[in-house]
Design a protein that fits this description.
With 279 residues, the chain is of the alpha/beta class. The chain has a single domain, classed as 3-Layer(aba) Sandwich (Rossmann fold), CATH 3.40.50.1820. The chain has 12 helices and 8 strands. The protein has an 8-stranded mixed β-sheet, with helices on both faces. α1 links the parallel β3 and β4.
Length: 279
Protein backbone atom coordinates (compact mmCIF):
# COMPACT_ATOMS: atom_id res chain seq x y z
CA UNK A 1 0.00 0.00 0.00
CA UNK A 2 2.84 2.38 0.71
CA UNK A 3 4.06 4.72 -2.00
CA UNK A 4 7.42 6.14 -0.90
CA UNK A 5 8.03 9.39 -2.71
CA UNK A 6 11.03 11.21 -1.20
CA UNK A 7 10.94 14.89 -0.26
CA UNK A 8 10.73 18.31 -1.82
CA UNK A 9 8.55 21.38 -2.14
CA UNK A 10 6.00 19.95 -4.58
CA UNK A 11 3.21 17.82 -3.12
CA UNK A 12 4.28 15.14 -5.59
CA UNK A 13 7.32 14.50 -3.40
CA UNK A 14 5.46 14.30 -0.07
CA UNK A 15 5.47 11.03 1.82
CA UNK A 16 2.11 9.39 1.31
CA UNK A 17 0.20 6.13 1.40
CA UNK A 18 -2.80 5.23 -0.72
CA UNK A 19 -5.52 2.61 -0.80
CA UNK A 20 -8.36 1.75 -3.12
CA UNK A 21 -8.50 1.44 -6.91
CA UNK A 22 -6.42 3.76 -9.08
CA UNK A 23 -9.48 4.33 -11.28
CA UNK A 24 -11.95 4.88 -8.43
CA UNK A 25 -14.85 7.22 -9.19
CA UNK A 26 -14.26 9.13 -5.95
CA UNK A 27 -11.17 10.20 -4.02
CA UNK A 28 -10.35 11.68 -0.64
CA UNK A 29 -7.28 13.43 0.75
CA UNK A 30 -6.41 12.64 4.36
CA UNK A 31 -4.38 15.14 6.43
CA UNK A 32 -2.92 13.83 9.71
CA UNK A 33 -2.60 15.67 12.98
CA UNK A 34 0.24 18.01 13.81
CA UNK A 35 3.67 16.32 13.86
CA UNK A 36 2.07 13.00 12.83
CA UNK A 37 2.53 11.06 9.59
CA UNK A 38 0.25 9.58 6.96
CA UNK A 39 0.34 6.27 8.86
CA UNK A 40 -2.20 7.75 11.30
CA UNK A 41 -4.88 6.79 8.74
CA UNK A 42 -3.99 3.12 8.42
CA UNK A 43 -7.11 1.94 10.27
CA UNK A 44 -9.43 4.18 8.25
CA UNK A 45 -7.95 2.89 5.00
CA UNK A 46 -8.74 -0.67 6.08
CA UNK A 47 -12.46 0.04 6.55
CA UNK A 48 -14.50 -2.19 4.18
CA UNK A 49 -17.02 0.60 3.50
CA UNK A 50 -14.24 2.58 1.78
CA UNK A 51 -12.78 -0.24 -0.31
CA UNK A 52 -13.97 1.34 -3.57
CA UNK A 53 -12.66 4.83 -2.75
CA UNK A 54 -9.16 6.05 -3.59
CA UNK A 55 -7.79 7.34 -0.28
CA UNK A 56 -4.48 9.17 -0.09
CA UNK A 57 -2.98 10.16 3.24
CA UNK A 58 -0.03 12.56 3.15
CA UNK A 59 2.59 13.63 5.65
CA UNK A 60 2.69 17.40 5.64
CA UNK A 61 6.25 18.68 5.08
CA UNK A 62 8.06 19.36 8.34
CA UNK A 63 5.95 16.82 10.23
CA UNK A 64 7.12 13.39 11.33
CA UNK A 65 10.76 14.31 10.71
CA UNK A 66 10.29 15.30 7.06
CA UNK A 67 11.97 18.45 5.68
CA UNK A 68 9.92 21.61 6.36
CA UNK A 69 8.81 24.23 3.87
CA UNK A 70 10.37 27.67 4.14
CA UNK A 71 7.05 29.05 5.36
CA UNK A 72 5.51 27.01 8.18
CA UNK A 73 2.46 29.27 8.48
CA UNK A 74 -0.84 27.45 8.39
CA UNK A 75 -2.04 29.48 5.42
CA UNK A 76 0.92 28.17 3.43
CA UNK A 77 0.17 24.61 4.48
CA UNK A 78 -3.41 25.15 3.28
CA UNK A 79 -2.14 26.42 -0.06
CA UNK A 80 0.16 23.42 -0.48
CA UNK A 81 -2.54 20.96 0.61
CA UNK A 82 -5.05 22.52 -1.79
CA UNK A 83 -2.59 21.97 -4.63
CA UNK A 84 -2.30 18.37 -3.47
CA UNK A 85 -6.09 17.94 -3.36
CA UNK A 86 -6.42 19.37 -6.86
CA UNK A 87 -3.63 17.18 -8.18
CA UNK A 88 -5.18 14.06 -6.70
CA UNK A 89 -8.68 14.99 -7.81
CA UNK A 90 -9.94 14.77 -4.23
CA UNK A 91 -13.69 15.08 -3.75
CA UNK A 92 -13.43 15.30 0.06
CA UNK A 93 -10.73 16.36 2.50
CA UNK A 94 -10.41 14.76 5.93
CA UNK A 95 -8.20 16.43 8.50
CA UNK A 96 -7.27 15.55 12.06
CA UNK A 97 -6.23 18.10 14.70
CA UNK A 98 -3.81 20.54 13.00
CA UNK A 99 -4.62 18.79 9.73
CA UNK A 100 -8.27 19.72 10.35
CA UNK A 101 -7.24 23.35 10.72
CA UNK A 102 -5.41 23.11 7.41
CA UNK A 103 -8.65 21.81 5.90
CA UNK A 104 -10.60 24.69 7.48
CA UNK A 105 -8.29 27.20 5.84
CA UNK A 106 -8.47 25.36 2.51
CA UNK A 107 -12.26 25.74 2.61
CA UNK A 108 -12.28 29.28 4.04
CA UNK A 109 -9.86 30.56 1.40
CA UNK A 110 -11.91 29.02 -1.39
CA UNK A 111 -9.00 26.83 -2.48
CA UNK A 112 -11.12 23.73 -1.84
CA UNK A 113 -14.91 23.88 -2.23
CA UNK A 114 -15.91 20.30 -1.50
CA UNK A 115 -16.98 18.68 1.76
CA UNK A 116 -14.52 18.63 4.66
CA UNK A 117 -14.46 16.30 7.66
CA UNK A 118 -12.75 17.95 10.61
CA UNK A 119 -11.60 15.62 13.36
CA UNK A 120 -10.66 17.39 16.61
CA UNK A 121 -9.95 20.86 15.20
CA UNK A 122 -9.17 23.81 17.48
CA UNK A 123 -10.95 26.98 16.45
CA UNK A 124 -9.05 29.24 18.86
CA UNK A 125 -5.99 29.20 21.12
CA UNK A 126 -8.39 28.64 24.00
CA UNK A 127 -9.49 25.36 22.40
CA UNK A 128 -5.93 24.04 22.29
CA UNK A 129 -4.37 22.07 25.12
CA UNK A 130 -2.84 24.08 27.95
CA UNK A 131 0.29 21.96 27.58
CA UNK A 132 0.88 23.08 24.00
CA UNK A 133 0.17 26.72 24.83
CA UNK A 134 2.68 26.55 27.69
CA UNK A 135 5.34 25.04 25.43
CA UNK A 136 4.83 27.87 22.96
CA UNK A 137 5.34 30.49 25.66
CA UNK A 138 8.42 28.75 27.05
CA UNK A 139 9.90 28.56 23.54
CA UNK A 140 9.91 32.35 23.35
CA UNK A 141 12.66 32.27 26.01
CA UNK A 142 14.19 28.81 25.68
CA UNK A 143 14.02 28.26 21.93
CA UNK A 144 13.55 24.65 20.84
CA UNK A 145 14.49 23.15 24.22
CA UNK A 146 10.89 22.76 25.49
CA UNK A 147 10.11 20.71 22.39
CA UNK A 148 13.14 18.52 22.96
CA UNK A 149 11.78 17.81 26.42
CA UNK A 150 8.31 17.17 24.98
CA UNK A 151 9.62 14.41 22.73
CA UNK A 152 10.97 12.58 25.77
CA UNK A 153 7.55 12.42 27.42
CA UNK A 154 5.29 12.27 24.38
CA UNK A 155 4.18 8.73 25.23
CA UNK A 156 2.30 10.22 28.18
CA UNK A 157 -0.03 12.03 25.78
CA UNK A 158 -1.11 8.69 24.32
CA UNK A 159 -1.36 6.65 27.52
CA UNK A 160 -5.14 7.11 27.81
CA UNK A 161 -5.83 6.24 24.18
CA UNK A 162 -7.88 3.04 23.74
CA UNK A 163 -5.58 1.86 20.97
CA UNK A 164 -3.64 -1.38 21.51
CA UNK A 165 -0.22 -0.81 23.12
CA UNK A 166 1.73 -1.79 20.01
CA UNK A 167 -0.24 0.65 17.84
CA UNK A 168 0.23 3.47 20.35
CA UNK A 169 3.95 2.70 20.33
CA UNK A 170 4.03 3.06 16.53
CA UNK A 171 2.28 6.43 16.60
CA UNK A 172 4.54 7.69 19.40
CA UNK A 173 7.59 6.55 17.44
CA UNK A 174 6.39 8.67 14.50
CA UNK A 175 6.06 11.69 16.81
CA UNK A 176 9.58 11.18 18.12
CA UNK A 177 10.98 11.49 14.61
CA UNK A 178 10.23 15.22 14.70
CA UNK A 179 13.03 17.77 14.86
CA UNK A 180 12.50 20.07 17.89
CA UNK A 181 13.64 23.12 15.90
CA UNK A 182 11.11 22.37 13.18
CA UNK A 183 8.43 21.63 15.77
CA UNK A 184 8.92 25.10 17.19
CA UNK A 185 8.41 26.68 13.76
CA UNK A 186 5.39 24.54 12.87
CA UNK A 187 3.56 25.00 16.17
CA UNK A 188 4.40 28.70 16.34
CA UNK A 189 2.93 29.12 12.86
CA UNK A 190 -0.18 27.19 13.85
CA UNK A 191 -0.87 29.10 17.07
CA UNK A 192 -0.06 32.37 15.33
CA UNK A 193 -2.76 31.53 12.79
CA UNK A 194 -5.32 31.03 15.56
CA UNK A 195 -4.24 34.28 17.21
CA UNK A 196 -4.67 36.28 13.99
CA UNK A 197 -8.35 35.39 13.81
CA UNK A 198 -9.21 34.99 17.49
CA UNK A 199 -11.44 32.14 16.36
CA UNK A 200 -11.55 30.54 12.92
CA UNK A 201 -15.14 29.34 13.44
CA UNK A 202 -16.45 32.34 11.43
CA UNK A 203 -14.10 31.39 8.60
CA UNK A 204 -15.54 27.90 8.44
CA UNK A 205 -19.07 29.24 8.67
CA UNK A 206 -18.37 31.46 5.66
CA UNK A 207 -17.02 28.61 3.52
CA UNK A 208 -19.09 27.11 0.72
CA UNK A 209 -19.07 23.35 1.23
CA UNK A 210 -20.58 21.10 3.87
CA UNK A 211 -18.53 20.28 6.95
CA UNK A 212 -18.55 17.61 9.64
CA UNK A 213 -16.94 18.84 12.89
CA UNK A 214 -16.12 15.86 15.12
CA UNK A 215 -14.54 16.20 18.54
CA UNK A 216 -14.34 14.32 21.84
CA UNK A 217 -15.64 15.56 25.15
CA UNK A 218 -11.98 15.98 26.09
CA UNK A 219 -8.53 15.24 24.71
CA UNK A 220 -7.35 16.65 21.39
CA UNK A 221 -9.12 19.78 20.15
CA UNK A 222 -11.99 21.66 21.71
CA UNK A 223 -14.90 23.93 20.93
CA UNK A 224 -16.54 26.70 22.94
CA UNK A 225 -20.29 27.11 23.32
CA UNK A 226 -20.19 30.28 21.22
CA UNK A 227 -18.26 28.53 18.44
CA UNK A 228 -20.72 25.66 18.46
CA UNK A 229 -23.71 28.01 18.17
CA UNK A 230 -22.08 29.94 15.36
CA UNK A 231 -21.29 26.82 13.33
CA UNK A 232 -24.72 25.29 13.83
CA UNK A 233 -26.32 28.51 12.56
CA UNK A 234 -25.19 27.63 9.04
CA UNK A 235 -26.99 24.80 7.23
CA UNK A 236 -24.51 22.24 6.01
CA UNK A 237 -22.33 22.17 9.11
CA UNK A 238 -22.73 19.30 11.56
CA UNK A 239 -21.10 19.31 14.99
CA UNK A 240 -20.67 15.87 16.55
CA UNK A 241 -19.38 15.27 20.07
CA UNK A 242 -17.91 11.85 20.82
CA UNK A 243 -18.20 10.59 24.40
CA UNK A 244 -15.01 10.45 26.45
CA UNK A 245 -11.50 11.42 25.39
CA UNK A 246 -10.15 11.57 21.85
CA UNK A 247 -6.47 11.57 20.93
CA UNK A 248 -5.89 9.78 17.59
CA UNK A 249 -9.45 9.93 16.23
CA UNK A 250 -8.81 8.40 12.77
CA UNK A 251 -7.15 5.38 14.38
CA UNK A 252 -9.45 5.14 17.40
CA UNK A 253 -12.79 5.55 15.57
CA UNK A 254 -12.19 4.37 11.99
CA UNK A 255 -15.67 2.93 11.42
CA UNK A 256 -17.33 6.14 12.62
CA UNK A 257 -15.05 8.33 10.52
CA UNK A 258 -15.71 6.04 7.54
CA UNK A 259 -19.46 6.60 7.96
CA UNK A 260 -19.01 10.39 7.86
CA UNK A 261 -16.67 10.10 4.88
CA UNK A 262 -19.28 8.01 3.06
CA UNK A 263 -21.85 10.76 3.71
CA UNK A 264 -19.44 13.43 2.50
CA UNK A 265 -18.63 11.51 -0.67
CA UNK A 266 -22.34 11.15 -1.41
CA UNK A 267 -22.78 14.90 -0.93
CA UNK A 268 -19.85 15.57 -3.28
CA UNK A 269 -21.33 13.26 -5.92
CA UNK A 270 -24.72 14.95 -5.70
CA UNK A 271 -23.11 18.37 -6.05
CA UNK A 272 -21.08 17.22 -9.06
CA UNK A 273 -24.15 15.90 -10.85
CA UNK A 274 -26.05 19.14 -10.29
CA UNK A 275 -29.78 19.60 -9.74
CA UNK A 276 -32.13 17.03 -11.17
CA UNK A 277 -33.85 18.07 -14.41
CA UNK A 278 -37.49 19.10 -14.17
CA UNK A 279 -39.86 16.25 -14.66
Amino acid sequence: MAEPTGHGWSWLSWDRISSGPDDAEQRALLLPGGLCTADEYRELMAEPALAGVRLTAVTLPGHGGTPPPRDCGLENYARLAAECAAGLGADVVVGHSMGANVAIEMAASGRFRGPVILLAPSFSRQDESRFLRTLDRLALVLGHLPYSAMLKIVDGAAKDSPLPPDRKAELVADLRRNDPRVMRRVLRGYLGYLDRYGSVAPRLRGADGPAWVVHGESGDGGITADERRLLLSRPGIRVITLPGESFFTPAEEPALVASYLTEALAAALTAARGPAPDA
